[in-house]
Amino acid sequence: MHGYGDLAHAPAAVWLASAIAISAPLASSVQAAEPPAMTGPRAARYESFATVAVVARRLGVDPALAMAVTWVESRGRAGLEGAAGELGIMQVMPATAGDLGLHDPGILAQSRFNAVAGVAYLKQMLDQFGGRPDVALSAYNSGPGATTRAGGVTPQSRAYVRRAMRAFRRLRACPEDRALAQCLHALHDAGRRP
C-alpha cells in the first residue's frame, strides 16, 4: 500500500491510489481463476468474493473471514444498498468509508473499492479487539462503541456473528486445492439446510 498501512490517515487521493494499487491486478487474477462454465450473476458474485480474498491477503486479513463478512452482508451481490444506507458487497456505511478517507459514495458502490474499504474496516476492528474474529464481527456489524460497551459481542449482533462465524469456519475448512467456486457453492448449499 505504498507505506499507508492506516488508510484512515491517508489523504483521499492517496486512499484512492492505494485502493487502485491494491485492487488493480484483480481483473487478470480473477479472470484467470474463474471456472469457464460460470456465467451471469453467479460469475459476478464469484468475482466479488475473489476480489475480497485478494484484497484481504494484501491487507493482512484472513481471506476466509473477509469472505464470510461478504457472504453474510450481500452473498457477493454488487450494487446493494441496505435500509440504513450501507453500500456494496461488504455493506459499508458511507460514514465509515469517510472515516477511512473515502468520501464519494459513487466510488464506494464499486466492488473493488467497497472491498478495500470493507476489509480495511474489518482489519481495524480486528486490531482494536485483539484479533478476536467474533468480537471484530460484532464491531463490524454494531460499531466499535457498542461492542466496547457490551464488553464483547453485542446482543443485537449475536445472530450476525453466529452466521458469519459459521461461514468463516466453512470457508477456512475448504481444502487449498479446492476451487473458490466449489467452496462458495458448498457454503450456499449449507445455507439452505435446516
Tally of helical segments:
11
Oligomer: single chain
Largest sheet: none
Instruction: Report the CATH topology name.
Output: Lysozyme
* Fraction of residues in helix: 55-70%
Order of helices and strands: HHHHHHHHHHH
Q: Please tell me the CATH architecture by its name.
A: Orthogonal Bundle
Number of domains: 1
Residue fraction in strands = under 5%
- Could you report the average pLDDT, rounded to the nearest whole number? 81
Cα shape: globular
Radius of gyration: 16 Å
- How widely separated are the two ends? 43 Å
Instruction: Flag low-confidence runs.
Output: 1-5, 8-13, 26-36
Structural class: mainly alpha
Highest-level CATH class: Mainly Alpha
Strand tally is 0
Report on this structure.
Helix 1 crosses helix 7, helix 4 (63-74) packs across helix 10 (158-173) and helix 7 packs across helix 8. The chain has 194 residues and is mostly helical. The protein starts with 11 loop residues before the first helix and ends with a helix. It has one domain (7-192): Lysozyme (Orthogonal Bundle). It contains eleven helices and no strands. Residues 1-5, 8-13 and 26-36 have low confidence and may be disordered. It has helices at residues 12-23, 26-33, 40-59, 63-74, 94-99, 105-108, 111-128, 133-142, 144-150, 158-173, 180-192. It is globular and about 45 Å long.
